[in-house]
Amino acid sequence: MENNELQKIWKNIDSEIDLKTTGQLNQLLDNKIRKTINKFFFILSIDIIVSFGLIVFLIVTALNRQDDIFYLINNSILILITFSALIISLFSLNKLNRNQCNLSLKDWLEQRINLLSKWLLGKYSKLYIVIIPILLVMINISIHVYYEYKPFVEVMKSEESIIGLIVGFLVGLFVSYYAINKIRKYQIKNLEFLRELHTQLTFNSESI
User: Cys-Cys link to 152, which of 71, 95, 122, 159 (CB 3.0-4.6 A)?
Assistant: First the structure.
């Protein structure tokens, strides 16, 4: 592929690209791909840390409320759901990070694009709309009941507690949806950038 042809392609991605050899441009392309993929690693890592922290909190609070059966049930369900999410995140991180030496950079990137597209735009990509309210209710109850220092049933009978739980739920729901929407837009933007880079790689390989 002629340098000037590859140069024109790169102008669409980076306006500050100077005249470089084909090898240098390909290396720059590789670096941009890795850097963009790392942004997904970062978000997944945060997700794993938050999940782990929540599990620790739920276990500790449950151990301190061993005589409150309803509180234990609430926390146990939350632990199960959060642990499942943690396992999924770990598997996702592993899949995204998996390197196959026999694959070209283009094929490796294509696999990641397909994987990320499934996560962000696939059949179950909007499942969080249903799951988040349920989790928020249960987490809100767990925190509120624990720091009320009263049995679960007694707290649930208190009008003041119910009002507090409703307000906390609504605020939490707004913040959660807002944050997730921002993160999804950021991830989809990075996914589109990866698709552009894949197009450059495809054009490059076909023009050699």
Answer: 71
Decide if 50 is inside a domain: yes
> pLDDT by residue (tens digit) across 124-177?
888 889 999 999 999 999 999 999 989 999 999 999 999 999 999 999 999 999
Here the tokens at position 125 are: 């990509």
Flag whether 51 is in a domain.
Answer: yes
8: phi then psi, degrees, rounded to nearest 5: -65, -40
4 Rama class: left (phi>0) / alpha (psi -120 to 50) / beta: alpha
17 lies in a domain?
no
Q: Is residue 16 part of a domain?
A: no
Res. 14: pLDDT tops 60: no
What total of structural domains would you count in the chain?
A: 1
Distance (Å, whole) CA 72 – CA 92: 30
3-state class percentages of the chain: helix first, strand second, coil last, to nearest 5: 85, 0, 15
Question: Which structural domain range is residue 38 located in?
Answer: 23-207
Q: Identify the band that residue 3 occupies on the pLDDT scale cut at 50, 70 and 90.
A: very low
Contacts of 100 (CB under 8 A, 6+ apart): 108
